[in-house]
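Key result, reporting period 2: structure in, sequence out.
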């Protein structure tokens, strides 16, 4: 899993962050890192979370996005879910697939958790659409994103 030097893994992780979450998100992580007050976990995020887990084999990134969104719904983490809805769209998930994750969460995580997640996903989708329109984005682009959640 931890292949390459720490510098290689960090570079690979940074590239994945930019692909999945966009250059502005990467810049916000870098800004946090530069403050040195709350930025000490950023290099580990690049190397461990993004390079080691998002770039490993076994399942494709699209599936990892669906699984990750499920965890975040269960944990009631709407702000983090917004980031991962954006990543899911960039990883090739359709709005319908994201909607199915939200629907599946209701009986297992509870309707309040699903409602919180639906609102966060709607906001993330609207932000994504305002930046990218209803078409494709990036190399792992979503299919048609014209419908709403």
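The corresponding designed sequence is given below.
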């Amino acid at each position: 899993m931890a292949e390459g030097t720490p510098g290689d893994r960090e570079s690979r992780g940074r590239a994945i962050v930019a692909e999945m979450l966009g250059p502005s998100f990467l810049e916000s992580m870098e800004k946090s890192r530069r403050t040195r007050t709350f930025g000490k976990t950023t290099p580990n995020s690049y190397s461990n979370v993004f390079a080691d887990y998002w770039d490993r084999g076994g399942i494709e990134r699209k599936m990892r996005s669906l699984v990750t969104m499920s965890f975040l719904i269960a944990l009631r983490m709407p702000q983090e879910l917004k980031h991962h809805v954006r990543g899911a769209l960039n990883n090739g998930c359709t709005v319908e697939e994201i909607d199915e994750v939200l629907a599946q969460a209701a009986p297992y995580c509870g309707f309040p958790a699903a409602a919180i997640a639906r609102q966060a996903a709607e906001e993330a989708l609207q932000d994504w659409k305002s930046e990218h329109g209803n078409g494709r984005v990036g190399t792992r682009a979503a299919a048609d994103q014209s419908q709403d959640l």
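Residues 137-146 have pLDDT under 50 and may be disordered. Residues 89 and 142 are 5 Å apart (CA to CA). This case is discussed further under Risks and Mitigation.
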